[in-house]
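Memo to structure team: turn this sequence into structure tokens by end of day. - J.P.
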Amino acid sequence: MTLAACCCSCLIVTLRAGDTPVAAGIVLRHQARAFFFKLGVDERFAKYSPGVQLTLDLTRHLCADPTIASADSTASPDHPMINPIWRERFAIGDLLIPLRRHDPMVPLIEAALRSRQLVLKRARGAVRFIRKRYGNSA
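Reply from structure team:
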């Protein structure tokens, strides 16, 4: 795993197979906290679970760093990959801050964000249903 830092507040973590990057993620640091999010993997290596491998390596790195008191995956509470690795979560939410007082776009943006969450929740439910009914290969 290699770490590249910019001002020690944003880390790009990469897992490589030789010279080939197979998984990467972003870690934001603030004071003694670290927030891991945006994991990307090379699907050609999917059978080796590079995202899980990167997360395990990163977890060991964060636990060994004496300057980090706590870390969070920022994953949803029911995330199938992260739950077995990081069992607890910080309470994290979204905050929409208008740039202008009484901005007429704020209610539209808020409605779009809520709709997106609803669609994602229903899509995840549909995927779980299909996997349960037809097996994980579906």
